[in-house]
Design a protein that fits this description.
This protein is α/β, with parallel strands linked by helices. The protein folds into 2 domains: 171 residues, Spore Coat Polysaccharide Biosynthesis Protein SpsA, Chain A, CATH 3.90.550; 124 residues, no CATH class. 54% of the residues lie in helices and 11% in strands. A 7-stranded mixed sheet has the order 3-2-1-4-8-6-9. α10 crosses α12. The longest helix has 36 residues.
Length: 385
């Protein structure tokens, strides 16, 4: 007669295999020419205090692949690496989710680093109050360059974004962003994942999540270190494309455009007006100075002097709002970062962020709303490759 306990090892290993192949969390990371950043991200994942996760790296047609980097971590974490033709980050995330086994999909950018308690914080929030989709804020790591810290301040400051990406809760619904985003697998599959939009595909997905009636939450303690862009030129392009995305989203969801989304555009127009006033004042001042230095027939210097005084007053009037905002950013950034140098860079970052977004917004409004061009026709040269 067969011993009733003879099959216990078989059942144990079957259960173990099932458990290991069905992780609770699947971390999806699309990658394009970022092997060094992937190395840092994977290193941080090995330090997680919660280990119920798998990682799926999707190489989106990179010329600088990270396959060798991933191979270093194959025996330390559950990791799958896939190489595919370039299609953009949204479609690469969909590709990864199709090959994932977890109950929750966590979407991360390749340029983030996770603190050791990241997944534990996510798990605690979901245990305490479950939801369908979630996201967390971002911070600057001490190893980041001063420019990256200045950009991080600008993207999380109350004086630029209202502070929501720094971890402050909003009164209206929360819309997760793809640099740090989680969603239940069944919800992801029901909505079809990310769309083929060129810009703003993560906001588009979040809007569809909310419109479908699913619950979303901000997890303040599930934050990540986010490198963002490494110089102001790349940062300008990023926020410029974000401005374009906002109009594209408006064309798709007219009710998605809120008053707050118009503020960078208003700021950009205001800066342009101030610069025009300043230029007028400078021209008037130097015309007066030229008149003072050039002998006239009647020898009267009253007119040139009045022109100089008026030019100075007009120029100061145009310059004052720009200076006031710069001083506010300088003071707040210096206090928050503890560095005057970062504070100075933060002034440039704030102006870059708001005017870049505003210019992209105005450009897209002209092409999409006035000229009635389609999304793909209007921005052939800007698509992520």
């Amino acid at each position: 007669m067969c011993c009733p306990f003879a099959f216990l090892p078989f059942y144990f290993f079957t259960f173990l295999l099932f458990y290991l192949s069905n992780m609770k969390y699947s971390i999806i990371v699309p990658v394009f020419n970022r092997p060094e950043e992937v190395d840092e991200l994977l290193a941080s994942l090995t330090q997680q205090t919660l280990n119920d996760f798998e990682v799926i790296i999707v190489e989106d047609g990179s010329q600088q692949p990270c396959k060798e980097v991933c191979e270093k971590y194959g025996d330390r974490i559950s990791l799958q690496y896939f190489m595919k033709e370039n299609s953009g980050p949204g479609q690469s995330r969909n590709y990864g989710v199709e090959r994932a086994t977890g109950d929750y999909m966590i979407i991360l950018d390749s340029d983030v680093i996770l603190p050791a308690g990241y997944l534990a914080a996510v798990d605690a929030e979901l245990t305490q109050k479950p939801c369908d989709a979630f996201g967390g804020p971002d911070r600057a790591h001490q190893s980041f360059t001063d420019i990256q810290k200045a950009i991080s301040y600008s993207m999380t400051s109350f004086f630029t974004t209202g502070g929501i990406r720094g971890g402050k809760k909003k009164l209206d619904k929360f819309y997760p962003r793809s640099f740090n985003m989680g969603i239940r697998r069944d919800v992801y599959e029901h909505l079809g994942g990310f769309s083929k939009m060129r810009f703003g595909e993560d906001i588009d997905f979040s809007i569809r999540i909310v419109k479908a009636g699913y619950t979303t939450r901000l997890f303040p303690d599930a934050w990540v270190y986010h490198k963002r862009r490494t110089d102001f030129r790349k940062f300008w392009r990023q926020v410029y494309n974000s401005g374009i995305a906002r109009i594209n989203l408006y064309k798709k969801y007219p009710d998605s455009l809120k008053l707050v989304h118009l503020l960078p555009m208003v700021f950009t127009l205001g800066v342009s007006l101030c610069l025009a006033v300043m230029l007028t004042g400078i021209i008037l001042f130097f015309l007066g100075l030229y008149g003072m230095l050039t002998p006239s027939a009647n020898g009267c210097a009253t007119g040139p002097f009045c022109a100089m005084a008026g030019g100075f007053a007009i120029g100061s009037f145009g310059f004052s709002p720009l200076l006031l905002y710069a001083l506010i950013i300088l003071t707040d950034a210096t206090i928050h970062t503890g560095s005057l140098h970062i504070g100075v860079l933060a002034v440039r970052a704030a102006y870059t962020q708001l005017t870049g977004y505003g210019c992209g917004f105005l450009n897209a409004w002209w092409k999409r709303c006035i000229l009635r061009r389609g999304e793909f026709e209007a921005y052939k040269k800007n698509f992520y490759k």
